[in-house]
Amino acid sequence: xxxxxxxxxxxxxxxxxxxxxxxxxxxxxxxxxxxxxxxxxxxxxxxxxxxxxxxxxxxxxxxxxxxxxxxxxxxxxxxxxx
Amino acid sequence: xxxxxxxxxxxxxxxxxxxxxxxxxxxxxxxxxxxxxxxxxxxxxxxxxxxxxxxxxxxxxxxxxxxxxxxxxxxxxxxxxxxxxxxxxxxxxxxxxxxxxxxxxxxxxxxxxxxxxxxxxxxxxxxxxxxxxxxxxxxxxxxxxxxxxxxxxxxxxxxxxxxxxxxxxxxxxxxxxxxxxxxxxxxxxxxxxxxxxxxxxxxxxxxxxxxxxxxxxxxxxxxxxxxxxxxxxxxxxxxxxxxxxxxxxxxxxxxxxxxxxxxxxxxxxxxxxxxxxxxxxxxxxxxxxxxxxxxxxxxxxxxxxxxxxxxxxxxxxxxxxxxxxxxxxxxxxxxxxxxxxxxxxxxxxxxxxxxxxxxxxxxxxxxxxxxxxxxxxxxxxxxxxxxxxxxxxxxxxxxxxxxxxxxxxxxxxxxxxxxxxxxxxxxxxxxxxxxxxxxxxxxxxxxxxxxxxxxxxxxxxxxxxxxxxxxxxxxxxxxxxxxxxxxxxxxxxxxxxxxxxxxxxxxxxxxxxxxxxxxxxxxxxxxxxxxxxxxxxxxxxxxxxxxxxxxxxxxxxxxxxxxxxxxxxxxxxxxxxxxxx
Lengths: 82, 581
Prior knowledge:
Oligomer: heterodimer
Shape of chain B: globular
Structural class of chain A: mainly alpha
Helix content of chain A: 40-55%
């Protein structure tokens, strides 16, 4: 998942490496419009449906990974919730 | 570097990638590293967030070598942008403005929303002479599984009809039928309630991408980049099987499968023909085999008379292509090529990259869909000439046959029995005149492009004259084929534009038009007629046209050569092949 996410960030912002602290505060170009585009791409690539309430919270790689681990289907194992 | 070449190396897969790619394209344009592309200034005025659409559009048009300069009105500011003559929109002075509003953002009742749009468009026309494209509303299917149609849905239909009827004959307003695109794509797939909540983007990503292609069609039409000619292969393209092996009774075409998919495909091609697209055949076969199918097969939709050029031989197809172009008198860059065989397509792409080769699917059942989902032949309007174009070119093919069978040019020109009419343009001619200024590349001395609104203004202008020339002969009526725009403000007349449709060149019609202008000028006691030749990549054909007509070369700088004709010594031409009406 990290690799796939890294590729998305590369295509979106032209950065090669990401880590947990990569966030909306330290990536050039990650503005509110880019955020919407990023959410669209995450939904497509990880086959999740992200609610607007969740979407506004996903402002760092750490939060995105945590969210995807809990919600994504497809090539990720879905963790049992609750 | 060419813009299209740069665009093709960049990532255009999805909005996220297009955002970055669009920015890279803008940067390349700012850096001035792009050579030779078409430019257009376009504005968007919308009730919702338009950014993703613009990103897709910039990338898609760049692949077609078009650079967009975009202006974006603040969303939700439709009224302010259009009603205030000092708004950012009018200050940006775009060639093309897109007005996209959701009905609900204007009024609960879609019909009242449409009336608001009509009022806005009317104000726009007072404030600007440029084109406005108005998007239709997407009707929300109220209760898809109920029996009675919802009132709301009916109102949407009414509203859209109102928009279409109001503007159908307005040269300045185009309708962008977003509703038909959404119904083609499917309402549920087109809309995205989540994105609407989150970012005021009403559409799904895949619909935004498709919509950008539709807007591109409007842009290409405005730039005169619409393709003119569709060139078709035969075996496994127009019918299933190989005529040389399977014979006329063995090839697959008819009402049942296999064969019905080729009938559907041919019907779509025939629709294009009726919209003025020129058809041609480029096939490796024995000529007689194919002609027999075109003439005799009971289930063929396309017939010999639909084709302006028929090249059936064993030459490589890229060799035939320029010959077809020459026969029809168009450039190879106005041609589109369809062939089921990937190797033939690949060869065409390598030898003649300017020909647009459509990537066909291997399943013939998808041919029709593939053709219908192109925007290559999109026109903003149809003229009378468009509807007649097919017959006009078929007549031309017969003329060419006559010329081949006539010993001298003199005899040929005599035998055509040509009748010419030269008149001042009237308002009803404006559409066709604008079309000719935008489509004519080869026999065009100054290549100035004029919109219909420009032409309307020139016709009104008492200090200018537009001459239009029509030609007919024993094979048929070619319609309006020549235009000259002359500035008559002083005792020096100046020929601003002079162009002829290529299919009538060399038949004295061009001489008749020059002669008429010079005789009129002399009658008005002018001393001199001035003219220009502005060189382009395509109009070398007429580089010495003014010289041949007795004009004297004055100066040339860069691509412009200026000429003068003193009228004192002007003698009317001997136009012995033409009768005047």
